[in-house]
Amino acid sequence: MFFDPRALFLLIVLVGVSGWVARGLMVSFYKLRREEKTSSGAGDMEERLRKVEAAVSSVIAEVTTIREKERFMARLQASRDMQSRQEVAAGEISPLVTQNIPVIPRVSR
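Request: output the structure for the sequence above.
Response:
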């Protein structure tokens, strides 16, 4: 009775991966149980809470800065649009507007 080499290889891989996953689960369970016994609880939790508060306050500061930048850019854009409307109304051509001037005159048919 001969085994198919592909099936045998897949069986070996399956057993190896299963053992690796089981080992990882056992190690993490062991570490979790060991930390439960040695952790002080309230002091550790208070320190973590302080870190979370600091992170949240820094994120809030960054979001506020981003909002201010967006407001500033919106004001700039609005003033730029207002300026361009006034220039168009006055009949002036902005040097930033490109004009299509043909170099070679077209022949009329």
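Residues 1-38 form one domain.
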